[in-house]
Amino acid sequence: DKRATGIGATYMELNSERNSIIVEPTKAIASTKADKTPTNTIYVGSPTSLHPTPITKAEIKAYHNNEAVLNKKIIVVADSLGKVIEAIGDDVYDNYFLMIDEVDSFQTESSYRPNLEKCIDYYFRFTDRALVSATMLDFTNPAIQDEPLITITQEGDKQRISLVETNHSVVYAAKRITQFRKKQEESKIKVGKKDRLVVAFNSVTKIMQVIGLLSTENKKECAV
């Protein structure tokens, strides 16, 4: 339970002196982390803009058998973990450390992505393993409850959050974006990378609704 995002848990494992398989819930996260990692790391999952060509089982096996790579690092999308295990064979369970990242999503999304549940089944076959999350949940699988829990805390000031209650989140978000842009224009602040407004909204449909409520000029500044 790392309690915070971006504190380097995945980075630490990718730079550890052991063989590792790091499982990510989505190809976007897995592909990005593999791209940002030094050489000798492979990505296993469906094609992305960073990894347009899928890796084969033969290539995974060749990577596993490559003695020149001392600490092998495989970043895999949850749906492709079985492919990695089949390519390497049963030796994988004793020769690789398995890290399942953002494990909370493996429970919340397993109803429509059954391969997420399979990852947990594979998890218990590994000698060395860890489940990692910044938003740890209570799990329905009783075996997980028996795993030792390590909580990581960070020192420093907490980020200030202003909570607003509203029944119209789309309208409110559009209003705040408009206010932000108007304040920039009145202050004659040149819009650059440091002046962008980031809005986190867990619904693509509502994101598009927010953008639809903005002026033509403000719409041009938006990206999803």
Main beta sheet, described? 5 strands, parallel
Q: What is the quaternary state of this protein? A: single chain
Q: Helix fraction?
A: 40-55%
Strand order of the largest sheet: 2-3-1-4-5
The first-to-last residue Cα distance is 30 Å
Q: From the helix content, strand content and strand pairing, which structural class follows?
A: alpha/beta
Q: What is the total tally of β strands? A: 5
Q: In what range is the share of β-strand residues?
A: 5-15%
What's the number of helices? 11
How would you describe this structure to a colleague?
- The chain has helices at 9-14, 27-36, 57-65, 81-88, 92-95, 103-108, 114-123, 142-145, 169-187, 204-212, 216-220, and strands at 20-24, 41-44, 73-77, 97-100, 129-131.
- It is of the alpha/beta class and 224 residues long.
- Helix 3 (57-65) links the parallel strand 2 and strand 3 (73-77).
- It is built from eleven helices and five strands.
- The longest helix is centred in the C-terminal third of the chain and has 19 residues, at 169-187.
- The protein is elongated, with a radius of gyration of 21 Å.
- Helix 9 (169-187) packs across helix 10 (204-212).
- A five-stranded parallel beta sheet has the order 2-3-1-4-5.
